[in-house]
Amino acid sequence: MSPQNQTNPVEQETHTESKSQTGSSRATYSESSELKDRDIRLDAGESEPDELDSQSAKSTSSTFGRWRREREKERQTEIAREQEIREEQGRIAQLRNDPGLDGLLAEDQSKSQTSKRRRPLTRLRKILYGVGAFMLAVLLYIGLVFYSPLLSVQTIRVEGASLLDSVQVEQKLEPLKGTPLTRINDQKVRELIDQEHVLRGVQIEAHPPHELVVTLKERTPVAVIHQDGKYVVVDSEGIKLREVENADGINVPLVDVGQEAPQDSAAFRTVANVLSALPSSILTQVKEARASSTSNINLTLKDGVVVQWGTAEESDLKAKVLTKLMEAVHEDQSKTAQQGQATNKVNTYDVSSPRVPVTR
Question: Where is this region: Disordered (predicted)?
């Protein structure tokens, strides 16, 4: 054997070990690569070939095999934990959605949500019910008060009639019977009476359930004028109230205005102002009133006594003074008569100066 072909035994052993280590390293690297590929396939959901199972069985004694097994256990634990979490969440969702599965919290939550949904509807219903009840009450009130026969007129009573005949007025108001009291007004009553020249107005008063009281506000007659052979009763404005056969039965004085219409006569307006100021107790005693001028007005009483009035100024004061003066004279005459003495008759009352009245 030549020296070149001789090999040092130590070197040969070392070379042999190096080759074996190199081969082992290659085998380990190859196994590690295959295991990594296997893990990747497992993560992707792919099945592992049977060859890997055989290789894994062969490498169970290695350190990497133990690491792999531990990692598999941890992965399985994580998968089981995730599965438990999903199952728990599913049970909770089932309890919340189904109150019958002993889910008190879910039942309360369901009631709360239902009440929240129904609350606006309940408020709206309350408002609608309230409005409906109010409208029904209004309709019932209108029907009862304005259209129901429960408050219809059955009796009509007329008051304040002196120039007009109350019986005739009641007959004219007959169409109002059967009409509800609330539907009758002054204008309607006045139109039925149809006496504009006599009435200043009317006043109605309802006495439920069936009585209507009509008070006439007639014009006040203050004089009788004689024209064209007729005696006409007029008020202070000269408006004709009625015609009479003679002036004897009328408790107002006769006023001479000639042929002028009383509304156009200055003498009549002057006398009318004086007569309007007189109280009814004196006016009924006046037989005639004359005004020769605006400053010379004289009244003649039914017993022949003359009242010198003067002008129409301060007529209200003159009327009060004349009333007091006539009462004093009457009282004095009564005392004198009781004493058996002759009474002094007064022929004239002069109130032209009302602050210094004179009797003659």
Answer: 1-117, 331-360
Give 211's contacts (C-beta < 8 A, 6+ positions apart). Answer: 153, 154, 155, 156, 157
- pLDDT tens-digit map of 70-94: 888 888 888 888 888 888 888 777 7
Task: Spell out the long-range contacts of 35-39 with Cβ–Cβ below 8 A and sequence spacing 24 or more.
Answer: 35/64, 35/68, 39/68
Apex CA 250: angle with CA 321 and CA 241, to 5°? 100
- 196 three-class SS: coil
Bridge-based pairing of strands 286-293 and 254-255 is parallel
Structural domains in the chain, sorted by start: 149-218 (3.10.20.310), 221-359 (3.40.50.11690)
Give me the residue label for tokens 């509807």.
121
SS3 137: helix
CA triple 211-217-218, angle to 5 deg: 130
Residue tagged 């003067």 (tokens): 310
User: Measured on CA atoms in the order 344, 349, 350, 355, is the torsion positive or negative?
Assistant: positive
What is the C-alpha to C-alpha distance for residues 79 and 42, in angstroms, rounded to an integer? 13
* Residue 167 token pair: 């019986």
Q: Tell me the two tokens of residue 330.
A: 């009457």
- φ and ψ at 253, to 5 degrees? -75, 155
Q: Which structure tokens are listed for 129?
A: 């019910």
**H or E element: which one contains 232?**
strand 230-235
If you search the block for the tokens 């009244």, which residue do you land on?
Answer: 299
In angstroms, rounded to a whole number, what is the distance separating the alpha carbons of residues 87 and 264?
A: 116
- Output the CA torsion sign for 179, 181, 183, 187: positive
How many Å apart are CA 100 and CA 105, to the nearest integer? 11
**Do 43 and 75 touch, CB atoms closer than 8 A?**
no
Which residue reads 């290659």 in tokens?
A: 26
The model's pTM is 0.53
Please provide the DSSP assignment of 297-310 as one string. EEEEETTS-EEEEE
Q: Which residues pair with 202 in a beta bridge?
A: 216
Three-class SS state of 178:
coil
**Which two structure tokens, joined as six digits, stand for 156?**
């009509």
